[in-house]
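fyi for ur records
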Amino acid sequence: MARKKLFWTICVASLACVASAGALFYLQPTWVLGHIQELRMRATGAESRQVMIDGHRIHYYVSGPADGAPIVLVHGLGGRSEDFVSLAPYLVRSGYRVYTPDLLGFGQSEEPPNATYSISDEADVVEGFFDAVGLTHTDLGGWSMGGWVAQKVAVDHPERVKRLILMDSAGLTVPPTWDTRLFTPTTPAELDQLDALLMPHPPMVPKFVAQDVLRISANYAWVVKRAVASMLTAKDVMDDDLPSLKMPVLILWGQLDRITPLSEGEAIHLLIPQSRMVVASGCGHLAPQSCSSEFGPAITRFLRTTYARPHEQTMMTGE
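which gave:
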């Protein structure tokens, strides 16, 4: 009788937990999904840390052996350090010390109201991050806007960048062919349009999830808008500066990218004589996430090579 009572007690408690979790997910799905991504990041062995840079709190993750060769990965517009949760393990398994900072205004970093969130200012944050964690000479990678920031750092401080990795990167004088206001969607229809730009085959988003995403988007839209406005001035474009780079450069691109089309990657490839390019077929702008099984090995192979062969281009089969 006691065992039966215990059994039913456990069942009722379990159902209550499931119901509570379901209610929480329904009410705050983005919060739940965000914490799941954080837990995934920590499950890879990453440690969550903070540093102060120019008086502002910057959050970052670090993973891999303490004596491993360092590499810093910079996320894109509206992104955060956890965006590299699928890519970082490839580098950790190869023995690298992987740093993934949240840029100023993004992720868990501070959002100062008077910041410009321009490419040049975010590049200063990355340089300050190097100093804060003691990196004098490091490999550097960037995705989308983060790739633009990484280019700026490499051009302004080439002595600090050992090798450069650009993933579906912005940075050229190429006006967007799509409405940049979609980066701060205000309706479910605009959110669907943004998803279609980011992914070749976007999943169907439940209405309650879409509404919560729009609510969160409204909270940080001012940061994104300020960053986009700065980028659209073309003040920090890199066309004229990229040929000056002398370090080995790897360019990784999703063949079906609609945010920064493949033609932009090919233009960057031509501007950097010693660069090597790898294209993942079937992949869009979120290739570092969705096609990490192609990008991860490509990066580790590149890092094991002192110099990339000039203007080599490889097509990889995406999932």
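The CA atoms of residues 254 and 287 lie 6 Å apart. thats all i got for now
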